Amino acid sequence: MRVNGIDIRPQIEAVWRIESAKLIASLARVVRDVGLAEELAQDALVAALEKWPETGLPDKPGAWLMATAKNRAIDLFRRNERLADKTAEIGRAQARLPTDTDFDSVTDDIGDDMLSLIFTACHPVLSTPAKVALTLRVVGGLSTPEIARAFVIPEATLAQRIVRAKKTLAKAQVPFEVPGAEEIPARLASVLEVVYLIFNEGYSATAGENLIRPRLCGDALRLGRILAGLAPQHSEVHGLVALLEIQASRMAARVDASGEPVLLADQDRTRWNRLLIRRGLESLSRARGLTDDPGPYTLQAAIAACHARAVTAEDTDWRQIAELYDRLVTAVPSPVVELNRAVAVGMAHGPEAGLAIADALAATGLMNTYHLLPAVRGDLLERLGRSAEAYDAFRAAATLTENMRERRLMLDRAGRLTDRTAPTRS
């Protein structure tokens, strides 16, 4: 796939990554079906893969893709048994579709269409895994194999998930539109959750050989920034972007040269990305400026900011972090938040105080399969000098995680305690 001896596939892939969401959003506004809109967009991509190696990239590749997809839509409806009705509908709709000449002048419509596409892909009628997969596909522009590799699941499983999601939206006749003002807060929470989950899977992979998947983090950041531009008046959008920017700033320091995880206290902070930190702090400031009652993402961003501002691990204001976690666990009560609070309390007020919280969580049985609970307990027990119990906790954490890097980290921490454990272990 070469033009004048130059492989243009990377250029086509870059165009698709940039233009696909806008293309699908504009098409979905007309055909009122996200699945059909994506099929039309894919047809346009196939046409580009066939044509552009011969002609080179057009001056306005986005406009070319839009015109091609629009023509495919017209052809499709002409073949439809409801020929008259659909042809009239597409004829009336053509005026709303960007053309070769006015593609660059419809940014307001594109913004509305993009927001509608994001809300549709994250509609409550879909399961959370379906929302994540569909969002990465139609908004993020990732291919099915790319998404499957990112989440370490079979490609066939991921493909079925996306197909079911599209059918579910069509069967439920989900309208392609921005929700009404009264619906936006609840619907926006679902959208933010999807972006947050995508980032977290990239930041700390639940399975596989690698601890981090920077591509997923980058896709989540891009989605968050798009959302902040489309819904600038909502504080939690900026709070989420702030959180992701600051967390992403630590990516280079989270693993060593061989890919093994590096604990926060041991990270080389000179490797933290100061530009991302600055952007994150600016987003946090915007979020705080929009409300006197910060939501969970803004509170988490404030916690991340405490770490970002600390020049060394010893400079970390753990008391402020513990106070922020007190507020967070009130805002969104959950075992995971409570476990994070145990870590903060253990650093601010001593390991015994943190262990009391962690042990109370363990007693509920709600986190029996969550590897970070024994990992946190192991750390607190080690700091208390209870090496045998810490050894058992780290070993338990190793058996619960499906990520190979984390498993090795837990086993290494247990191994370093072997000489301090009293019982002889087989």
For the largest beta-sheet, the strand count, sense and barrel status come to:
2 strands, antiparallel
Helix content: 55-70%
List low-confidence stretches. Answer: 95-109, 422-426
Mean pLDDT comes to 86
Q: Given the helix and strand composition, which structural class is it?
A: mainly alpha
Widest beta sheet: strand line-up: 1-2
Approximate shape: elongated
- How much of the polypeptide forms β-strand, as a percent range? under 5%
Query: How far apart are the first and last residues' alpha carbons, in Å?
Result: 59 Å
Rg, rounded, reads: 25 Å
Order of helices and strands: EEHHHHHHHHHEHHHHHHHHHHEH
Please render the helix and strand layout as text:
Blueprint: E1 2-3, E2 6-7, H1 9-31, H2 34-55, H3 61-79, H4 83-94, H5 107-121, H6 128-139, H7 144-151, H8 155-171, H9 184-203, E3 207-208, H10 214-230, H11 235-248, H12 251-254, H13 274-289, H14 296-309, H15 318-331, H16 335-349, H17 351-364, H18 372-383, H19 387-400, E4 402-403, H20 404-417
Parallel strand pairs: 3-4
Antiparallel strand pairs: 1-2
Summarize, please.
This protein has helices at about 10-30, 35-55, 60-80, 85-95, 105-120, 130-140, 145-150, 155-170, 185-205, 215-230, 235-250, 250-255, 275-290, 295-310, 320-330, 335-350, 350-365, 370-385, 385-400, 405-415; strands spanning about 1-5, 5, 205-210, 400-405.
